[in-house]
Amino acid sequence: MDAATLGEVVRLIGHSDDRRLVGIAGEPGAGKSTIAALVVTALGPTAALLPMDGYHLSQARLRELGRRDRMGAADTFDVDGFVEVLHSLRDPSGTTFAADFDRTVEEPVDAALAYPPELRTIVVEGNYLLHDDGGWERVLPLLDVSFFVDVEPGIRRSRLIERHVRFGKTPEAARAWALGPDEDNARVVRASAHRADHVIRLD
């Protein structure tokens, strides 16, 4: 993301004395985490990041449900817990605690993130913020403004493979996961892209 694009995103978010929830959605490997972090930095100390990944179901629960081999799909998250946190964040009268995700062990960490009442902007990032099925349809109405990150598919897949290798997969396993479960999830995410208020296009 270049400075001009970042500035435009910040302008579109705008300023409000009331707390605002900003959604940044995109396919796996689109770069939404990086963009969200840049936006938080640009907005300053009254902004904070909420990653949706903290609401992955635990590895044990995924195995119980028979979904471990497609971790990252829409039904492998605790959507009810995620929606509950978004509702809590809309009321800044007290501190809200939210889960984070430890990629080194691929497990959620409960109450790892704290959002005190003085925060004015919460930037929420994740794959399924715009999804309209399976309980996810409750998310978009809780966001004040939403963005979809659009990136060239080849670049996105290359990033995914590199990330999987960085976190311990062999190159062969990384490619298989990126072109298998990740690509299945990408199709679901892209199907809801039209619901975003704005699109961030990256080359």
Describe this structure in words.
By secondary structure, the chain is an alpha/beta fold. It has a single domain (3-202), classed as P-loop containing nucleotide triphosphate hydrolases (Rossmann fold, 3-Layer(aba) Sandwich). It is built from seven helices and seven strands; from the N terminus they run αβαβααββββαααβ. The protein has helices at residues 3-13, 32-43, 59-65, 79-89, 153-166, 171-179, 181-191, and strands at 20-26, 47-51, 96-102, 107-115, 121-126, 145-151, 198-202. The strands form two sheets. Strands 2-5-1-6-7 form a five-stranded parallel beta sheet, with helices on both faces. Strand 3 and strand 4 form a beta hairpin. The longest helix has 14 residues, at 153-166. The chain is globular and about 50 Å long. The protein starts with a helix and ends with a strand. The mean pLDDT is 93.
Which helices and strands, and how do they pair?
Layout (H helix, E strand, L loop, with lengths): L2 H11 L6 E7 L5 H12 L3 E5 L7 H7 L13 H11 L6 E7 L4 E9 L5 E6 L18 E7 L1 H14 L4 H9 L1 H11 L6 E5 L1
Parallel strand pairs: 1-5, 1-6, 2-5, 6-7
Antiparallel strand pairs: 3-4
Helix pairs in contact: 1-2, 5-6, 6-7
What number of domains? 1
Strand content: 15-25%
Tell me the name of the CATH class: Alpha Beta
Largest sheet, in brief, is: 5 strands, parallel
Strand order of the largest sheet: 2-5-1-6-7
Query: Separation of termini?
Result: 9 Å
Characterize the overall form.
Answer: globular
Could you name the key traits of this structure?
203 residues; alpha/beta; Rossmann fold; 5-stranded parallel sheet; two-stranded antiparallel sheet; 7 helices; 23% strand
